[in-house]
Amino acid sequence: MTKYILVILLFPIFIGCSSDSVNNNNKYLPNYNFSIDINMDLPLYTNLQFTANPVYIDQAGVGITGIFVMNTGSGYVAYESTCPNQEIASCSAMTLNGIMAVCPCDESEYSLFNGQSEGKEYPLKQYRVDVINPSLIRVSN
Description:
- This protein is mainly beta.
- The protein has a single domain, classed as Rieske [2Fe-2S] iron-sulphur domain (Rieske Iron-sulfur Protein, 3-layer Sandwich), CATH 2.102.10.
- The protein contains 1 helix and 9 strands; from the N terminus they run αβββββββββ.
- The chain has one helix spanning 2-15; strands spanning 35-39, 55-57, 67-71, 76-80, 95-97, 100-102, 109-111, 126-133, 136-140.
- The protein has a 6-stranded antiparallel β-sheet, with no helix packed on it. Strands 5-6-7 form a 3-stranded antiparallel β-sheet, with no helix packed on it.
- The longest helix has 14 residues, at 2-15.
- It is globular, with a radius of gyration of 18 Å.
């Protein structure tokens, strides 16, 4: 009987651990729900068919100030394009410099391969990417 009680008590712990989830806890950036389907056959997104060619998507309702999406060669990543280590301000919309996202407020650079910036508390806010078929991906939060 005690085995069954132990299993019942530990079951919620295992349910809460998902490798699919993305940690979006950042005190500066709110979590807005969105979903966007990206058709890489469209000219706007054809760069995503090739490794290390990020695309900025600034469609209304997608992210806070938009998102960056990139093919890493082993899959796709999507990140918020708002500076992750400060309050949202007029300079918070990041820009692309090759495979780096640059925060104009403090000139910090973040790798679009892993979302990290040296010496910063928060990495880029990452979003979930699902490959629907070879030419269609879905980015969501």
